[in-house]
Give the backbone structure.
Amino acid sequence: MPLLNNSHQRIFLKIFLLLSMLFQPCSCSYVSYKKEAELLTSSKLLFFTPSADAVTDGSDDVCLQTDLSLQIDMERSYSVSLVTIINHIGEYRRGLIGSQVEISNNLCGPVINESMVNESAIVDVICNPPVTGQHVRIRFGGFLQFVHICEIRVYSDEIEKSECTSDPYARDYNGIVDVTSSGIICQKWTAVWPHISWYRFGDYNLCRNSDWDTAWCYTIDPAVRYRMCDVPETGSTCPRDKYEDNLQPLNTCNGVSHWLMHDDSKFASGVYGASEQPIKINVPSNIIACIPNDRRFHTCSNSFTLAFYMFPYRHSNGPIVTFGNTANTRFTIVQVVPNSAYNLYNSDIIVTYGNSDVLRTNVLLPETWTFLAITFDGQHKLLTVWRDGEIARIANTAFTSIDMDFDDVQFGLFDNSFDGVVAHIRWFQMYDRVLNEAEVKAAKNKQIEKCDGLFQEVAPQTENVKDRLIHISSSPTVTMCAIRCRHNLSCFVFHHNRSTWTCSHYQSAIVDPSITGKVYQWKQRI
C-alpha cells in the first residue's frame, strides 16, 4: 500500500502535481463511462450469467448477449437527459422492442418501438424532462427474448459536473480520466495484477482519490506501481456554465481563408449574406470539396479539434474527411459500408491514421443532421469522438503527433473499397487545441466568430452584357458557384439561379437584365 508519510514523498508529489496542471483534459457529461453494470437475475436461457461490463467499457467492439434486464450504477445521483443504446446489428436486434429505460425507478423517455431499432444501431432514448437518479435500469420487453447490446451511454445535462472538483485534493473527483499524466493506462481498482490494490473505488480503471494530494491510479505497467493523473484544477479550469464567447477556428477570420468563411448555415461559401445551402458531397457523381491548408493547420500536430455537421444519405459510405499527402501520414474519417443482410443503415465511422485504425464507433443516423467532433490530445495519446456535443468514444493512440504538412483537407475521396460518400457538410471548424465539453457544445451551437465573405452583393448594371459574360455552368448551390468564380481568374462577378442551377460568371457588375436574384462581386481579387 503506497503511503505519503515522509516529507520527501510529499515534496515529490507536489512538484509532480504542479507539472501535471500544465495540461487540463477535456471535460464531459458522459457519466456511465466504465461504471459498474450488472445483470439483475440469473439467465433463463443460458447456463451461465455473462459479465455486463461490455455495455459500459466505452467501446462498441465487444457486445453483451443476454435475456436479462441490466442496471448501471453511476456511483452518485445525476440529472440524466439522454440514454443512447448501441444495438448490435444482427439476428437479435429486434429484442429491444418493448424495452424501457428507468432512472432510479422513474421512467425515462418512451418505450422502445420498432421504428427506433429499424433505422440503425443507434437507439436514442431522450429523458424529457431530465430524470435524476443514481441507477440506470434497462428492462427488456420480450419474455425469454435475447438482446445483443454493444454499449449504453448515459449523459447528464449537468455540463462538466462529472469532471469538476470542489476539493483541492480532488477527493470528490468522479470523472473519466483513465490515464496517468505520463500517459500510462490505469489498472482496474479491482484487479490483482500487475499490482495488488489496497483501494476499492469501483470495478473500473478511472483516476480517483481518497487520502492523497490529488487523483491517481495504479498502472498496467509492471515496472510502475502508481502515478498521478491530470484532472481539472478546482474551479477555474473546469467551468460549470455554458461557454458564452465566440470561438475562433483556424479556418476562419485569419486573412487567408479564401472561400471558407462562415456565414449563417454553411461553412465554405465566402459569400457574404448567402445562406441557402451547405456543401453537398457526392463522390459517385464526382462532386467533392477541399479546404486549402496554406499552413494554417501546422500548429495542430500535437493537439487539435476537428468538427462539422453532416447529413448523410442512406447509401452513403466511404472516406468523409481526409488529410495527409502520403499513406503513412494520412488521417481519415470513414463511414462504414451499410449492413445489407439486415437492410439497416450502418452508423459506424472508423478513424484511421497512417495504415492503422484508431477507433470505430456508432455516431451517424441516415438523413439526419449530426454534429461530429474529433479531439486529439497527443500529450496523453487520446483521441475522442463526439456526437452532438457528447462523447461517443475515447481511444488511446500509439502516436503523440499527427503530420500536418499537407495540401488540402478533402471532403469525399474516391476509394475502390466504397460506393462513395453522399452527404451534406456544413460548419467545418478546425482548432489547434482540445476543446472541452462546454466549448464543443458552443461549436455545435455555432458560437463562431463571423467573418465577411470574399463576395458582397452588388446592384447589377445592364449594358454590354455579351462582352461581360465569360462563363455559364450548372451548379447546385451558390457556394459551388462562388468556388468556381474564385478559381476563374477572369471572374469578378457571379450570379446563381437556384431554380435552374445556372451559374453565370462576369467580368464586371454588368449582367443580363433579365436575371432575378442576387449578384455577388469580389471585394478584392486575391
User: Anything to note?
Assistant: The two ends are 66 Å apart (CA to CA). Helices lie at 7-20, 114-118, 437-444, 465-468, 478-487.
